[in-house]
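BUG: 3D viewer hangs when loading the predicted structure for this chain

Environment: internal workstation, default settings.
Expected: structure renders.
Actual: progress bar stalls at 90%.

Input used:
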Amino acid sequence: MSLPSIHAATLSRRRFIAATAAAAVTGTGAAPARAQPGFRYRLGLSQPLDSPNYLRLKEMAGNIRADTKGRLAIDVHGAGDLGSDSVMLAMVQNGQLEMYLGGNVFGPLVPTTEMPGLPFTFKNSAAVFAALDTELGDYIRSQMLSKGLFAFRYGLDNGFHQLTARSKPIRTVDDLAGMTIRTPVQTMTVDFFETLGAKPMKFTLNQLYAVLQNGTCDGQTDPLGLIELLKLYEVQTYLSLTDHWWSGFTLVANPGAWNALPPDLRAIAEKHAKHAALAQRRDVDKLNAGALGVLRAKGMIVNRTDTSGFKKPLADFYARWKANYGDQAWALLEARVGKLV
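Structure tokens produced before the viewer hung:
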């Protein structure tokens, strides 16, 4: 859905609803009471309306509205209703959108957001969140704030990525040679596949199904649950289990919109954002655990990939990205996963 551009002054007026006059003046001379100001915000995301992301954020919005007695209302727009991920990210930065849930889209703006998804570093989602909920995450969130994005502390899960393809299974790294693969818009993911001999092509999530359907890309990378939710089994034949990297989602807000909220509303929003994130993580665990059987039943041909050849050329790859992310961020990463370079 296309939305008109919102002028900053109009946005400001929408954020602040004038307090209503109180009851008639009494004979005591007491000052008239005022209703507290209310706020109506929008939250955009690209994931489907039946995804754990959308459902938990809708639940979060309902709980926030109830706890604030309507003073903070958040309208959740899923399935790319407000535009692509790149469009929504720009809208948050320039104040046209108050809140946004993004996945692998922040890297071009804040490179360190890519670090939890470095190939073959973390063993499981619990290990990722142990880092993101503490020091490494604090560092990344501070860098996001410097780029005009307030990031909520507790991220959402997507799970570990697998490879799918139309033309053939990926049994070893040699099968990637020359294969066109859709990747997120991060340069790091492109570098990884180029290092392995593939031909990565960057497209946002809302373009994924189409570029697989029309043959622009032969394969793609996503967790099992998202492969199911996006019905990629309709346009992909082979599913190769690789667990090559983790991905997740970060809930962000425009700092001006966030700081416009009184402290009590911010505290309520953060409380329910945390509850939604933790519940979504459990949902994704269940979704990914059950998706393999669903995808097999839908006709996908499944194999376990020998990833030893994927890992051999990564020393130089890690060295390049250590230089890109910086020594401080890299030290925080290696404190969690061990020596990489």
